[in-house]
Amino acid sequence: MAKKKRITRKELLKEPDEFLTLSSKIIRFAQNNQKQMSYVGIGVVVLLLGFFAYRYMSSLSERRAYALFEEGFSHYMAQSFGQAQHTPDPVSRDKFIQVLEKYSSTKAARLTEPLLADTYAKTGDYDKAIELYNKALEDFPEEPGLRAIFWNGLGYALEGKKDYKAAAEAFRRITTLQGDFLKAEAYFNLGRMYELMGDKEKASAAFKQVADAYPDSMHGAMAKEKVAQLNRYQQGQVAGPQAEGQPVAEPAAAAATKDNVSVDGRNAG
């Protein structure tokens, strides 16, 4: 049996450091595009820096899985800054599916789950998105920031299925996590879900929570408007009874929020 050729330390030192090269590219990309990146994209960039260190010294299956993941991720991020942001690139989805089918036990597969969920949610495949977000929550039990991203994405996917009660619970879970990350948005979305379920009292309380706790945030400003609208409605100043399940007119910025945040994100305590 032929012996494997041993690579000397001198030869290794001559080769470019793959991990350092790739990680520096990731850092520069995140710095240059932080305003445009979706929550899922940001979360994955953070994870990449740790997981690529693992992959750098890991098994062949991990390396192959990450090679597929990198291809899919590059297409995913390129598409995220293109004109058709809500039409996922088929190449990225195909690569992500291959990672899960061929290398389901790898760390690359764990990274793939929320990204693939995001692509499914954007095309209305909510059942698949929900399944993958739940799997991501199982795989990352102790990272509050990531769990907020995944609960957020799960909430939007459940809203897409018109399961407002389950969506409300997903958004509520974000409010129980440590820190303030995504909490203003979570309380605002919780208010929207209550409103869609016809519970104006709980909706008003959730919106008031945002307005009081996060007054200077975008969601705080929208929440103040929603509280005022609901108060006028409850006082009979809004013309005509609203049918149950139909929210009081939503501030224009709210729709933009749902578009800009990946169901992502597009994000148990």
Task: Write a structural description.
It is a single chain. The chain is elongated, with a radius of gyration of 22 Å. The N terminus and C terminus are likely disordered. The chain has 2 domains: 96 residues, no CATH class; 99 residues. The chain contains 13 helices and no strands.
Write the layout of secondary structure elements.
Elements: H1 9-14, H2 18-32, H3 39-56, H4 60-80, H5 90-102, H6 107-122, H7 126-139, H8 144-160, H9 164-175, H10 183-196, H11 200-213, H12 218-234, H13 252-260
Helix pairs in contact: 2-3, 3-4, 3-6, 4-5, 4-6, 5-6, 6-7, 6-8, 7-8, 8-9, 9-10, 10-11, 11-12
In summary, what is this structure?
The protein is mainly α. It contains 13 helices and no strands. It has 2 domains: 96 residues, no CATH class; 99 residues.
Helix/strand structural class: mainly alpha
Average predicted confidence as pLDDT: 75
What is the number of beta strands?
0
Count of separate DSSP helical elements: 13
Biggest sheet character: none
Rg, rounded, reads 22 Å
Low-confidence stretches: 3-24, 239-245, 251-269
> What percent strand?
under 5%
Distance between the termini: 54 Å
Shape: elongated
Q: How do the helices and strands follow one another from N- to C-terminus?
A: HHHHHHHHHHHHH
What is the total domain count?
A: 2
